[in-house]
């Protein structure tokens, strides 16, 4: 018997499995169709004497997993003509705020003293331990902790728009 003829015998099982995976008849049928299409396009990969059903279910499983991943990245499909869905559900979140925040953070980081900026970036961005930062900068670990503390405090103030006053002694 030809592999194409054997495929037809497995359609009911594939449908049953697809409907168990996807609680939507049309999408389940699409999955079965995609599975059969993939199997027919790759019949040369099937090894004679092995279990055709297992091979088909493997193809279906892989297709299903790929569809789930794609739909998660894409979001939920909603028909534009569906009056039961409020228009606010079609809204896309704005991205310009994030861009502005990154710009402001970069500006604030540039306003930090170099010693504080180094420590803040090495600990915060590079996720280095205090000991590693101390070793990299050749300073005591206590210096790393105080620079980090002051740098974070100044960074918070810069981001909030309130620059802390400098603790400078006035020489007369």
TrEMBL record:
Pfam families named among the record's database cross-references: PhyR_sigma2, Sigma70_r4_2
RNA polymerase sigma factor 70 region 4 type domain location: 105-155
Source domain of life: Bacteria
Source organism of this protein record: Paraburkholderia bannensis
GO molecular function: DNA binding; sigma factor activity
Name this protein carries in UniProt: RNA polymerase sigma-70 factor (ECF subfamily)
Family statement drawn from the similarity comment of this UniProt entry: Belongs to the sigma-70 factor family. ECF subfamily.
GO biological process entries: DNA-templated transcription initiation
Domain PhyR sigma2: 9-61
Keyword tags: Sigma factor, Transcription, Transcription regulation
């Amino acid at each position: 018997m030809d592999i194409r003829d054997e495929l037809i015998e497995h359609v009911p099982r594939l449908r049953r499995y697809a409907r168990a995976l996807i609680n939507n008849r049309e999408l389940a049928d699409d999955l079965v169709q995609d599975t059969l299409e993939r199997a027919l396009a790759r019949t040369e990969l099937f090894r004679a004497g092995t279990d055709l059903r297992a091979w088909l279910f493997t193809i279906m499983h892989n297709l299903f997993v790929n569809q789930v991943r794609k739909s998660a990245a894409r979001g939920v499909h909603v028909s534009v003509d569906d009056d039961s869905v409020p228009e606010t559900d079609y809204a896309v979140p704005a991205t310009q705020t994030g861009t502005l925040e990154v710009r402001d953070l970069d500006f604030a980081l540039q306003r930090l003293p170099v010693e504080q900026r180094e420590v803040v970036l090495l600990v915060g961005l590079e996720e280095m331990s205090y000991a590693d930062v101390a070793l990299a900068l050749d300073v005591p670990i206590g210096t790393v902790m105080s620079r980090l503390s002051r740098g974070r405090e100044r960074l918070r103030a810069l981001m909030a728009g309130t620059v802390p006053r400098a603790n400078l002694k006035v020489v007369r």
